Automatic annotation (TrEMBL):
UniProt KW keywords: Oxidoreductase
GO terms for MF: oxidoreductase activity, acting on the CH-OH group of donors, NAD or NADP as acceptor
Database matches in InterPro entries: NAD(P)-bd_dom_sf, Sc_DH/Rdtase_CS, SDR_fam
Species of provenance: Emcibacter nanhaiensis
Domain of life: Bacteria
Identification of the protein by name: SDR family NAD(P)-dependent oxidoreductase
């Protein structure tokens, strides 16, 4: 598998922690050259050092992916550094909980900007490069919240539903150009997603949910990404719902 992917170049957003970090490590282990981006430059540098210590090739480009111009520039920087872009993994995300009645509109905008618009920006910037090469892969990280929602998770669920819809529309739009598009919808995965929640009680609830016994690890999602891009080019896994084995409740 390493030989198959060793000439590929990937850009991964939200790579300073969580699923983005797991994706970077998994792809680098397969010989993919990775460009990692997020706002926390120190964490990105630590990740790059870890990848290089293991024989991989990585570049950190710190910045705010919700800034449209930065999102465009990090795609351009990837192509400038490695001469191509084959894989885009959009993992930047945030969780905030709110309702519609008496909504905190700034909170809703913040979540939509990170979970939806940032992905739209990088996809738009990457498509011309992927098309010019004759194909590539775009993988967007959504959530089970993109299939079901609740009053308490208004902005988060709405952003993930929007991301799912955009991803499927994009698949139909660019599949004829050899560009495969996939949305991954993970269930409980041990990450720092709860830390952005401002309500202490809700933060503790989500923190427990994602770290409970049997929760998935970020490397599980990383391996899922490797599986997706390793399939023959004629096969596009367009959607993967992946949950802990012990989570047996109906959707």
């Amino acid at each position: 598998m390493g030989n198959q992917l060793s000439e590929k170049v990937a850009l991964i957003t939200g790579a300073s922690s969580g699923i983005g970090e797991g994706a970077a490590l998994a792809l680098a282990a397969e010989g993919v050259k990775v460009v990692v981006t997020a706002r926390r430059a120190d964490r990105l540098e630590d990740l790059v050092s870890k990848i290089k210590d293991n024989g991989g090739d990585a570049l950190a480009v710190a910045g705010d992916i919700t800034d449209e111009e930065f999102a465009k520039s990090v795609v351009a920087r990837t192509v400038e550094a490695y001469g191509r872009l084959d894989i885009l993994v959009n993992s930047a995300g945030v969780m905030a909980l709110d309702g519609v009645d008496k909504a905190d509109l700034d909170k809703w905008r913040h979540v939509m900007n990170i979970n939806f618009f940032a992905t739209l920006y990088t996809c738009t910037a990457a498509i011309p490069h992927l098309r010019a090469q004759g194909g590539g892969d775009i993988i967007n990280i959504s959530s089970t919240a993109g299939r079901r929602t609740a009053a308490a998770i208004g902005p988060y669920g709405a952003s993930k539903f929007a991301l799912n819809a955009m991803t499927e529309g994009l698949r139909q739009e660019v599949g004829g150009d050899g560009i495969r598009v996939c949305v991954i919808e993970p269930g409980a995965t041990s990450t720092e997603v709860a830390e952005s929640i401002d309500d202490p009680r809700k933060k503790e609830f989500i923190r427990h949910h994602v770290t409970k016994e049997g929760s998935m690890k970020t490397e599980d999602i990383g391996k899922t990404i490797v599986f997706i891009i390793s399939l023959p080019r004629r096969a596009n896994v367009s959607e993967i719902l992946i949950r802990p084995t012990s989570d047996v409740a109906a959707m």
